[in-house]
Each structure stands twice: as C-alpha cells, then as structure tokens.
Amino acid sequence: MNGQTPPTLEKLARQALLRDEALAISALEKLPWTLFPALFKDAFNGRHSRIVKAMVAAWPFPCLPVGSLMKTPNLKTFQAVLDGVDMHLKREFHPGSEQLQVLDLRNVQHEFWNIWTGREDGACLAETVDERPVVKDLPRYALRRRHLKVVTDLCLRLRLNEEQACFLQWVQQRKDFLQLHCINMKIWTAPVCTVKEILNVFHPGRIEELELNLAWNVSKLARFAPCLGEMRSLRKLSLKNEDQSTFRLAYRIVDTERISKAFAQFSKLHCLQHLSIDDIYFLKDHMKHILRSLKTRLETLSINNCEMSMSDLKYFPLSRSLRQLKHLDFRGTEFLTSCLQPLGILLENVAGTLKSLDFQRCNMDDSQLTDLIPVLSKCSQLTKVNFSYNDFSTPVLKDLLHHTANLTKMSEEHYPASLQCYNASGIIDENRYAQLCQELMDILVAVRNPCRIFFCTNACHVCDKNCDSEECSENEEWLCSCWQ
C-alpha cells in the first residue's frame, strides 16, 4: 500500500478513451458537455492530435482558451486545433445549440479551466453542473454565423517560429470568417514592410499593446506613422531603437516637418495610457510635437537614453496629458541644460498622483537636482525613487533625503554615493562611503522606518561592476571585493 488515492471512475474513463482514438472520437456526440474540458486538457497535454481536432470541431462552449494550455508549443497539436476550428465553422448549425465564439490563444491564466478542471480528478464544481457554462469577457456584439473571434498575443523576433508561421498563414486564408484581436504585439528587428504585412492580418484598431524594437530613423517613423494612427484601441505604446551601433553624428540634421507629421498621429490614440520611448536619437528638440498631440491623460511616461534640451523641457508642465502621471521614467536621458525648473513644475502638477520617479544614469549634477528637491516633499504618493549613478555632492544629497524623509509610502529608494566618497583616482574610499551611508540613514530613521534603500557606487575600475550598499534592518554594507 503506497497510500495514494485511487483514480476516480471518470479519470479511468478518460484514460480509456485516450487509449482508443476511434472510440473517443465516435463517443463525442454522446459525451456530456461537462466532461469535455477535462478530456480535452488530457488529450491536448498528451498530444493526441486526432482527438484534439475532433473535440474542437464539437466544442460545446462559447470560448476555447487553448492558449493557456500551450506551455510547450507543439506544431502538430496546434495544427490540430486550427483544423478543428475549420471543421467547427463548416458544421451544420442547429438553433439552440452552443456555438464556439472565441478562440483564445493567449498564454494567460483563464478561469474556464479553473471552473471545469479545478480539481485533480477533473470533476466540475457542484454548483456549476446544472448550469450552462458562462465565460466572462465575451464580445459585446453578437457574432454572425461563421464569424469567430480569435484573441492572441504576438511576439516576433526577426524570423517566425513554426507555430507563428502556421497561424499567420491560416488567418490570412480565413480573414473573411474571423475577427482577429491581437491584445499584445511585440515586433523586434523587422523591416517596416513586414510590420505592415502583419498589420494587414491583424486589424490595427484591435491592438491594445504595441512594442516596436526597430532600427528607427526619421524615414522609417514617417512610413510607419499612418499605421500607428489607425490603432484607436492602443493603451500601451513602446518605441525602442534596437540598433545600438547607429552612428548618431550622421543624423544630427533631421527633417522637422516629417517628424511633426509623424508624431501628429498620436492625436488619434484616444485610449493611450502608457508611452515609452527608448534611444530615439531624433527626439531632441521635438518633444513638443509629441506632447502637443497627446489627447489622453497618461499614467506612464518613460523616455530613456535620449537627449533633452531646454526647448523640450519647457513643454512638459504645459501638457494636460501629464497632469495625472503615476510613473515618470527618465533613465539614461541626458538633460542638456543646467536648469530643470520645468521638470520641477511638472512634479508639482503631479504631486498628488506620482508613484514612481526614475532619474537613474542621467548624468545629473548638484545644480540640476537642486531645481527638483523642493517639490519632492510634496509628492506624497511616491513609493519608489531612483537617483543612482549621478554626480551629487554630500550636502546636496543630504538635502535630498531631508525632503524625501517625510514620504511615508516609500518602499524602495536608490541614491548615489556622493562625489566626496571617491579619491582623486575615482576609487571609492571605504571609510567615507560607510560614514555617508550611516549619515544618510540617520536622516531617514529620524522621521520614518525605511524599507529598502540602496546607496550605489560607480563602476569599479577593475571589474567594471556597480555595487549597491543596501541599508535594511541589518544595516549591512556591500562593496566590490576589488576595493577591499
């Protein structure tokens, strides 16, 4: 006796059906619909492609969230699902019978499987046995016969994998019978013509999240902008430059008119809440075109690894779209002015909503930080700040912490080691560093109990590693071994 619970009769029956494909397929017409989910899950995980195909064709529920079962892709099984959908669309429809309305291919958790196969024995919940299945998040509109809503996420990296190629070919041939919804689309290292081909398959107006990691230039932005303007449901947009080797000096002269027209497409994004721009060299002196075009209140604005002039900064506090920001991220962005007063005004405008603020690696100095310090104490909702890897003196750094000490909701803080912690060769002085960490901690502890605090040093000259001293309840410091 090994003490294991014996399998239920239902589980034994499913195992018997999976051993005899012909019997399983012939039994589907008489199989109680409450047993479909558990049997389908077993067949899919066991890669019984013929049974999978037949079960999709006979699927008695309005939604089939098969994407959540595709942890390990298998082309043959995936093709069986698509073949089963074709059979389902062609089968004779009887009034009063259930029709598959949504094929969900996203790899996300779905409550459908929790309801119908929540227990290990696959038995459905008692309170749902006598009711027809109800799946949340169904289309708000009535679908016509033979029109199936297909929901998916798409992540393309240079070349399509087998499943993606199979799926795109399938949907291209059936666009008239499908309503395609790509919730989250990510495209890396692809020419604009390929992106446009994909958007011919997936209607731009049904894309909710888009990340484009391309070798951006003004010409490419201008070509793509009209497609962007069609994405009326877009909530999250991320534009990243994947070509880190771009010789920027060759592109200093840019076509302002083309940039203005391209960014004007942002005015059509009526659902946009999160905007991220990373390493776009031609953004300098053109931020006004973006901020003027935005028509929605953003929750997140992230501008990383760019350059900002004073003409860019002065438009930030004027933008109505930035009045309710929750997250502001300038990591790696260099401000080409000693005056950051416009950003101070922006922080004051969002003092009641801002939750995270990131100025990591901005090459900031004392004069720039001084413009921001007074308003920081008003940002009462802040939970996370990052000022690491900037050049601040000890007095200014202490002044900064005096102003953040009253922020009781703070859960994570990153500050740089001050300039006085380094010797003439740029090597950290361990004693000065330890003393600074203690003095800064004393400032905060006098007002509140800090959660996670990091005091970050510059890169070690020997191993090129950055080191963080995390001051927590143990008050332990950590330095690179090269400095000890």
TrEMBL record:
Keyword Acyltransferase: no
SUPFAM superfamilies: RNI-like
Record InterPro entries: LRR_dom_sf (IPR032675), LRRC14/PRAME (IPR050694), PRAME (IPR026271)
Tree of life domain: Eukaryota
Keywords of this entry: Leucine-rich repeat, Repeat
GO biological process, one term: positive regulation of cell population proliferation
Entry's Gene Ontology cellular component terms: cytoplasm
Family: Belongs to the PRAME family.
Protein name, as recorded: PRAME family member 12-like
Organism: Peromyscus maniculatus bairdii
